[in-house]
Amino acid sequence: MSDDAYMSFLDKANADLNSAGAEQTGKSSIARTETVSVNVRVPPPLTSVDSYYISETDEPFEPVALKWEGASKGVWPDSSHLSSLISPNADLSQSIDTLSPSSFDPKNQYTAALRAVRAAVAEGSGGDESAVEVKVYRVEVGPSRFEYYVLALNVEDGLIVGLRAKAIES
């Protein structure tokens, strides 16, 4: 084989690899989600949580602070509204389930996370954490990939605040 023929063979092989790689990255089956709206201050209790959600990958809880006009009226988002808040570019509404805090945390592993979410709302509304309602949304973002949103309504600021944890569950 001549040098030119060999170089042509290598160039073609590398071109095939590069185009396959470009196709792979362009077709990600995992939805991207957002956790903090632009120009929204994250409540301090949410930034100091040092807790991990236990799954096949132990992921840290991350702060969530999203503008939601229903929050100022005490209205929780349904699955379609939550989908538009966390994933403006993909409809995840069919992949969202609502859980109670006790079904999300039956072994009391995440009490620090739940307490931080309640504290984030209570700090601005007089300090009664026990009066703060918390809901957990389980969102399937891809095959065997889930995100858990532990949320509360901040009525005063018109926000949904809380924590998100990513999980792999196969």
TrEMBL record:
InterPro entries: NuiA-like. It comes from the Eukaryota. Pfam families: NuiA_2. This is Uncharacterized protein.
